[in-house]
What we know:
The chain is α+β, with helices and mostly antiparallel strands. The chain has helices spanning 11-22, 51-65, 68-74, 180-200, 204-220, and strands spanning 3-5, 26-28, 41-42, 44-46, 76-87, 92-96, 101-103, 107-109, 112-117, 124-126, 129-132, 137-140, 147-151, 156-158, 161-164, 166-175.
Amino acid sequence: xxxxxxxxxxxxxxxxxxxxxxxxxxxxxxxxxxxxxxxxxxxxxxxxxxxxxxxxxxxxxxxxxxxxxxxxxxxxxxxxxxxxxxxxxxxxxxxxxxxxxxxxxxxxxxxxxxxxxxxxxxxxxxxxxxxxxxxxxxxxxxxxxxxxxxxxxxxxxxxxxxxxxxxxxxxxxxxxxxxxxxxxxxxxxxxxxxxxxxxxxxxxxxxxxxxxxxxxxxxxxxx
Length: 223
C-alpha cells in the first residue's frame, strides 16, 4: 500500500530544519548505499557524525510517532536508518530496491520506506520519486512537510534534478505487522470502526470490529 500523509511537520518546523541544514556538512550519498546501489546513487547526505543529525533524527521520529495516521498505516516497531538527503542540479538516484536489512545500532528489517519532503515542489524541477508497480509507475513530488510511505519491496528511483535543490528525509520502518496485506486489513478495519464511532458512538458493531482488530494483532504481531 502506497500512502501519503500531509503536514507531518508544520511550516515553522520545516523552516527551522532547512535553516539548520543550510550550514551543515553533507557527504557523498554512496557512503550509505549497498554495493549495487552505489552504481546509480548520486546525491549528498548529512554526515552521521554531525551533531545535528542526531537532533533532527529525534525530531523526525517524534513527528511520526505523534501522527495517528502514520501509526495506523505502518504499525511501527522501529523507525530507523534516517538520512537527510540533498539533490542538487544533475543529481538523481536511479532504479534500485532498498536493502532488506539495515544496521542502525542493531539490525532492523525494512518493511516500509518513507520519503519526507522538506521543500516545496516549486523550489526545484525534476527530482520526482517514481515507484514501480506491476503494470504502471507512480510519480510523487509532495508539498513540504508531507510524507510518502511505500513498500520497501518495490523498485523505485529519483529523477534527475534539473533546477534548484531537492531536500528530503528518507527512512525505514520495521513494522509490528510483517505482511503488507495484513497491515492493509488492519488499516481498513481501523478506518471502519472510527467511522462507526464518530457517527454512532460505541455500538455493538464497533465492539465487534474492536475485538477483531485486537485478535488479529495478537495473531500477527511480530514482537
